[in-house]
């Protein structure tokens, strides 16, 4: 039916937008993690070199790293879902995936 096809194309379009948004979010998390890491290393080496427990900056870096890992897993799952949908060899679904990817990258 036409309604089912339109719904399928819209779902694929949204999945593609979400995939691109996650890619951007992962890059932001990486930048924040890299900003949090040098401060913790320089702080520890200058003030308490023998201290074993992680400082607040290291904890922040670890949270960013966990967030990045979760984003990566969701991104891989979404990527495979969009790929499988495109492999249905339906032109409308393919165009929906391309349009969603372009829209997600643009926004």
TrEMBL record:
Keyword list, A-Z: Copper, Copper transport, Ion transport, Membrane, Transmembrane, Transmembrane helix, Transport
MF term (GO), any: copper ion transmembrane transporter activity
Segments passing through the bilayer: 6-22
Places the protein is found: Late endosome membrane; Membrane
Membrane topology value: Multi-pass membrane protein
One cellular component (GO) term of this entry: late endosome membrane
Predominant cellular place of this UniProt entry's protein: membrane
Any Pfam family: Ctr
Family: Belongs to the copper transporter (Ctr) (TC 1.A.56) family. SLC31A subfamily.
Protein name: Copper transport protein
Species name: Nyctibius bracteatus (Rufous potoo)
The organism's taxonomic lineage, starting at the top: Eukaryota, Metazoa, Chordata, Craniata, Vertebrata
Gene: Slc31a2
